[in-house]
């Protein structure tokens, strides 16, 4: 049986469904669907040079790689490569082949530093280190069983603040874009990002098939969203917090916490049974919020980096 690596075909259901299946088996803490895989392949900004890869054995997709440049970073030459193989199909060389093709491609695109998220498990760490990657920071995945958990009581909404869903901004989502751009600039990480292109944000983020506008909640002051909790759902009872943040001028008031708990209450009422979120291990304020909500750490991952050349 021979393993081959090739480009994902976004218009072929067997490819997008196979990609999503691998990710759900190997990384069940992040939501993927065939529609979201296709959306990312088609709508990622051209400057990212995004190239999704699949490893195939006897016609079956057994491994995947997301490969792109951090085009929206202030520092050029940074590449991203995230490789995952079905847990029951490891040991066939699929991960090695995916990584090699991805690294060569990014090098050809001008990348000088590669970053990769790796599950914090011995075999995964050893795989990265054999390829010359060095350990950097770490992060946690957290899970909340919404079907069984008792959520904290809803806090009182402060005077002058109202809660709105993202659906309320359907006619003009630009205020949410501006809030997203400000909060992502302050997010902990080893690669800084800047959101400056509204049209690209609309195509990639606002129109993302996993974005649940009814469950995405924003705290609004004087008609402007100043804190939000972005919700993704996959239609299979699973929910993920894609981003939670507050504008700088309104931090320290518990508004992101308020938006997130209202989002979770709505999610449970809508039939969601399982919620996931993620935190950088140094992001103590958000970890405290998630523990208050009832989330528990279910896995961890490590950011690895490798210099090319």
How would you sum up this structure in a few lines?
With 309 residues, this protein is an alpha+beta fold. The protein folds into two domains: 109 residues, Gcn5-related N-acetyltransferase (GNAT) (Aminopeptidase, 3-Layer(aba) Sandwich); 157 residues, 3-Layer(aba) Sandwich (Aminopeptidase). The protein contains eight helices and twelve strands.
What labels would you give this structure?
Aminopeptidase, 30% helix, twelve-stranded mixed sheet, globular, alpha+beta, 309 residues
Mean pLDDT: 95
Distance between the termini: 34 Å
Measured by DSSP, the beta-strand proportion falls in: 25-35%
**What would CATH call the class of the largest domain?**
Alpha Beta
Main sheet: which strands, in order across?
A: 1-2-3-4-5-12-6-11-10-9-8-7
DSSP summary: helix tally: 8
Structural class: alpha+beta
Which fold does the CATH topology of the largest domain refer to? Aminopeptidase
Description of the molecule:
This protein has 309 residues and is α+β, with helices and mostly antiparallel strands. Helix content is 30%, strand content 31%. The protein has helices at 13-26, 34-43, 94-108, 122-130, 174-185, 198-206, 255-269, 284-293; strands at residues 3-7, 53-57, 60-69, 78-85, 113-119, 134-145, 161-165, 217-221, 224-233, 238-246, 274-280, 296-307. Strands 1-2-3-4-5-12-6-11-10-9-8-7 form a twelve-stranded mixed β-sheet, with helices on both faces. A hairpin with an 8-residue loop joins strand 3 and strand 4 (78-85). The mean pLDDT is 95.
């Amino acid at each position: 049986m021979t393993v081959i690596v090739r480009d994902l075909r976004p218009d072929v259901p067997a490819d997008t469904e196979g990609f999503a299946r691998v990710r759900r088996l190997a990384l069940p803490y992040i939501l993927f669907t065939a529609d979201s895989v296709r959306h990312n392949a088609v709508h990622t900004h051209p400057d990212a040079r995004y190239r999704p890869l699949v490893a195939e054995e006897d016609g079956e997709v057994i491994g995947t790689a997301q490969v792109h440049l951090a085009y929206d970073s202030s520092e050029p030459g940074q590449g991203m490569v995230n490789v995952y193989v079905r847990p029951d199909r490891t040991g066939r060389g699929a991960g090695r082949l995916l990584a090699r093709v991805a690294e060569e491609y990014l090098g050809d695109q001008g990348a000088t530093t590669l970053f990769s998220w790796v599950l914090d498990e011995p075999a995964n760490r050893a795989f990265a280190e054999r390829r010359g990657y060095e350990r950097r920071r770490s992060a946690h995945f957290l899970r909340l069983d919404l079907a069984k958990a008792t959520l904290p009581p809803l806090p009182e909404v402060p005077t002058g603040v109202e809660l709105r869903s993202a659906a309320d901004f359907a006619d003009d989502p630009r205020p949410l874009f501006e809030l997203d751009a400000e909060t992502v600039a302050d997010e902990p990480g080893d690669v800084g990002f800047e959101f400056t292109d509204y049209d690209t944000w609309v195509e990639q983020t606002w129109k993302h098939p996993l974005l649940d506008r009814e469950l995405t909640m924003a705290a609004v002051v004087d008609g402007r969203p100043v804190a939000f909790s972005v919700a993704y759902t996959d239609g299979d009872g699973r929910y993920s917090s894609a981003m939670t943040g507050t504008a700088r001028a309104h931090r320290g008031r518990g508004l992101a916490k308020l938006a997130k708990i209202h989002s979770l209450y709505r999610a449970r009422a809508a039939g969601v049974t399982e919620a996931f979120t993620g935190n950088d291990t140094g992001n103590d304020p958000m970890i405290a919020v998630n523990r208050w909500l009832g989330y528990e750490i279910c896995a961890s991952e490590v950011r690895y980096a490798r210099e090319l050349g």
